[in-house]
Design goal:
Length: 375
């Protein structure tokens, strides 16, 4: 879980717990804040025991898995761990322990990201049992994570062939491996399988474009997005992706053209109004930007980005009081938004509220320093 909170959205721990259940394991879990939320999500189960203390979670356990870096997990009683864990195994998902010390104490210790060390062990395991599907997948993933996509591909293709519905992890990594060796046709097929669309469809080209953009293969991403739009001019988000790409490259007129094409086929997409407003604001067309931002907010009032940009636009227009309200609303939703605090400080300064301005500008500086610590 996220430390210092009870937030379990997209938590690694949930993936681990559910994966253990799939393999027949029983889970004893402890977190200082998140037990009620986990109880709400999973309810009562024979294979889940929610514990009131970290010591209680060790009772009768074979292994310990650390999924979050709460400070009072940093210095456990290792003698107690040694005595209570049946297999004396620790899986440290946050790399908070000293591996040399842990091994000296007699534990089998596994830490995050030791992929190079995993490869020879997985190879030996596969030699002992070539039919072990889990080992095949883990070896393929380890080859990928150690920068050996060509070795990963045949293993991940095996995984891909075993399931009627695509194994999402294997399909995703397989697609990335094909991207890295520049076999874009096979990459498209892997992502198409992952999303259950025909491999030659417009959607398959769009999925590949998005993945290429994430990997910073910008020219290839543009080619694939254009192919998607060519095959289906009404495909939602094809023009949106092209607009994002052109914004990133500061090709603003082309970005505007693509975002307007997106709205022609997808007129209820709040993010397109927001991105188009951003493009207009960059060429100083603040009236158009304000109108588009209002439409974006009407469609989706839960995103902080449009409110931050609205504050910036209104400040540029000299409407500081309205900018103040937009920025305050943005920071209610996203209190750690650096730009929001920076603009709010500037807005207070425009309104002659010096003390509030200095407070917000100082907070923006602190947040920026925290997000970009010096080595």
């Amino acid at each position: 879980f996220k430390p210092q909170t009870d937030d379990v959205r997209e938590a690694t721990s949930r993936v681990v717990i559910e994966g253990l259940w799939q393999r027949g394991a029983k889970v004893q879990a402890y977190d200082p804040e998140a037990m009620e939320e986990i109880q709400r999500i999973y309810g009562s189960r024979d294979d889940l025991r929610l514990c009131g203390t970290k010591e209680a979670a060790l009772e009768g356990a074979d292994a310990l898995i650390i999924c979050t870096e709460w400070k009072h997990f940093w210095a456990p009683d290792f003698k107690q761990l040694h005595d209570k864990l049946g297999d004396r195994a620790i899986f440290d998902g946050r790399n908070i322990y000293d591996p040399h010390k842990i091994k000296e104490l007699g534990f089998a210790y596994y830490k995050k990201s030791l992929h190079a060390q995993a490869v020879p062990r997985l190879k030996r395991a596969l030699e002992e049992n070539p039919a072990d599907k889990e080992v095949v997948q883990l070896l393929g993933l380890s080859y990928y994570l150690t920068g050996k996509p060509a070795q990963a591909i045949p293993l991940l293709e095996q995984v891909h062939s075993w399931y009627a519905v695509a194994n999402v992890d294997a399909s995703y990594v397989l697609g990335l491996c094909y991207i890295q060796i520049k076999d874009y046709e096979q990459a498209r097929k892997a992502f198409a399988s992952m999303y259950d669309v025909p491999p030659d469809s417009a959607a398959s080209h769009l999925f590949l474009a998005r993945m290429l953009l994430r990997q910073e293969y910008d020219p290839r991403a543009e080619e694939q997005a254009r192919k998607a739009a060519e095959l289906n001019p009404n495909l939602p988000l094809a023009h949106f992706l092209l607009g994002e790409l052109y914004m990133y490259k500061s090709r603003i007129p082309e970005a505007i053209e693509e975002f307007e094409k997106e709205l022609a086929v997808n007129p209820s997409h709040a993010a397109t109004y927001y991105k188009l407003a951003d493009a207009y604001s960059r060429i100083m067309k603040f009236e158009q930007a304000q109108r588009l931002l209002q439409r974006s907010i009407w469609l989706d009032s839960t995103a902080s980005g449009p409110y931050v940009l609205m504050g910036k636009v209104l400040l540029k227009k000299g409407e500081a009081q309205l900018a103040l309200r937009a920025l305050q609303r943005a920071l209610q939703m996203d209190p750690n938004n650096v730009m929001g605090h920076q603009l709010l400080g500037q807005t207070y300064r425009e309104l002659g509220q010096t003390e509030e301005a200095e407070r917000e500008l100082r907070l923006a500086q602190q947040l920026r320093a925290a997000q970009n610590p010096k080595p």
